[in-house]
Request: fold
Amino acid sequence: MTRIGRTLTAVVCGLVIGLALPTGPAWAAEGLTLDAPAAAPGDRLGVNGTGWPGGALVQLVTCGQLAVGGSASCDTRAALAVPVRPDGTFAVQLVLGTPPVPCPCVVHATLVGGTARGQVDAPLELTGHTMGETPTVSTAPVRLDLVEARIAGRPGWRSLFGAAATRTLVYTVHNPGPHPLPNPPLNVRIGRDGGGDRISTPGTGGIRPGETRTYRIPVTTPFAAFGRYTVQADLGGFGPAEATLRTYPWGLFLVHLLGGTLIIVGVARRIANRRDRPPLPAMAAAPTGTLLPSVVRVGSLGAYLVFDDAPGAGRLRRRANAHLSVAALRDLLGDAGLPNRSGTEAAGTAVIDLTALDAVLAARPGAATPAGARAGNQSAAAVIDLAALDTYLGSPR
Reply:
């Protein structure tokens, strides 16, 4: 036998032997076990898996009616995803949810990512949950067609000032399949960019084959809402829909604008009044020594004599917290030394020389000559009689 022949013979024999040998064991079927056969919603239950592809992600969820209706039969809010170890196993503590449909219940496990691997259900007695009839397994896929999703109604006038406003989501779906969809959960959320806050909804009831059903759900925008909000709705994951609404509190803007305008107008008026205020009348020239200024300091009394035309006289009157009584004023004035009936001037003990004061006041512009004032005393320059003042201050008080 030639060398080439021997080589071909060895190759053929190797192929025959390889085909004759048994192949390696196939990947074991996915398995799912529970630490306890019964538990209540909200309890933690140990879930163990074997035979799953290493590195894959498995989703676990509590379902009713043997998960025949798909996600519509499961509490997707309590779903949990767990990674698979390289040896194909996983172990996790699952918080049991409350399925939207009656039992018989299962813990449903499926691979995330749409692989060809199968799904596994582990029977579970869910304590306290309602028990219903075992549904028949449908071979046709469940589908819901969206007919309409819109926001109806108008917000009230209070929403113009930032108050919460309630409108209505009109959500219409059609079941084109030959099988009913038993009591799917109606999920509604409202937010700015999808998702957002969940809105509580009543039971939906089953949707019969070929039936079209409309749901009206009140949706409320939050306080001081501004801009565009998105409302999302679905029935157990089927028939997803979105509707938008816009709300703008124009009333708040107008109130702020009006307040700012009033402030600006008030400031402008005050400035204009200051500019248009007429100046104080000029004092006419008077003979030297006969006219007192608007403010006179009386050093002996440690006080000031302020006339009404002095700058700030009104403010001083408002700030004055005391005044002379009639008796004290009489003591201060005393006998002014006015002429008596005989025509001669009395000695007088007054601190203030009324005759001189009359002469000074008569010399002020626009002042009339006081009755009883003597013309011969018009040149008097002293209003305060210092000698009488010393006597008054030195007398026992």
